[in-house]
Amino acid sequence: MFRCGNYFPSPNLAPRRPISYPRPPLPERLVKVIGSISAARRHLRSVNRPIVLVPTMGALHQGHAALLDRARSLAGPQGTVVASIFVNPTQFGPKEDFSRYPRPFAADGRLCAAHGVDVIFHPTGSRMYPDGFSTFAEESVVSSRLCGASRPGHFRGVCTVVLKLFQIVQPQAAVFGLKDFQQCAVIGRMVRDLNLPVRIVAVETVRELDGLALSSRNQFLTAEERRQAPILRAALLAARDAWKGGESSAARLRRLIVQRVGRAPLARIDYVEIADDHTLQPLRQAGDQTVIALAVFFGKTRLIDNIRLR
Predict the structure, then answer these.
(1) What is the largest CA-CA distance in the chain?
(2) How far apart are the first and last CA of the chain?
(3) pTM for the complete prediction?
(4) Residue 64 catalytic?
(5) Which of 23, 65, 87, 91 qualifies as a FRET site for 216, CA 20 to 30 Å off?
């Protein structure tokens, strides 16, 4: 449990489920929790480098644990791993789930402690977006399709908060998960275009044993929705198998996915896109630099997943 002061102890916690990546033993360490931007800057000026940042919105699971483990590996035993926990209001639309997004901060702190985090940056909304806030960062090409098309303003909020975190933490590297493939691409483009001195490291998606990508939103699925949700991964794998078998038509691959997802009665497709894995522009023919991405609703819960053809 908590130790006195703004620290989490580092217990020797076993993962809650089998996971598909190596997890080296981590030394015992205390995790400092900082909520103030000025305090974070002061503290991080004196820590060992490199600083590696893992931006999160909390509700952490074993997918996040994979990101934290990768950050620890990048930082090395003497470097500093920072996890930000901040549910960013600017990336939610007016009808989306900002108010009900889970915020189990105590459990998040324990997971961070178990996976080698040195500092948790946990600001309030008023600190990140003070009264009169009116400046935003926006990428306009990679973010224009997929989730950017179905969630207007989403990536403006993502770019803005990530740029602010980079300014506050001053990391040498930042780690993101490939489940949000478009987010990785958008952040990578922002870093390139704005000459930000941050290395972006992407980590493969961690999945449940039945293939469902781990997500903080999975907990909102009903039992029947959860039973049907693995159809997303199955449909993507079927499309990849068809491509390996010689099918390159994007239209036919998309039709195959739509038909497979349609076998789940509770699934409602938001989009299925076959795109270039660098620009995310649509393709007519799938090749070996192609990503297939989808978003599907089960009830009010929107799940995303993707697969790269290589």
Answers:
(1) 61
(2) 45
(3) 0.90
(4) yes
(5) 23
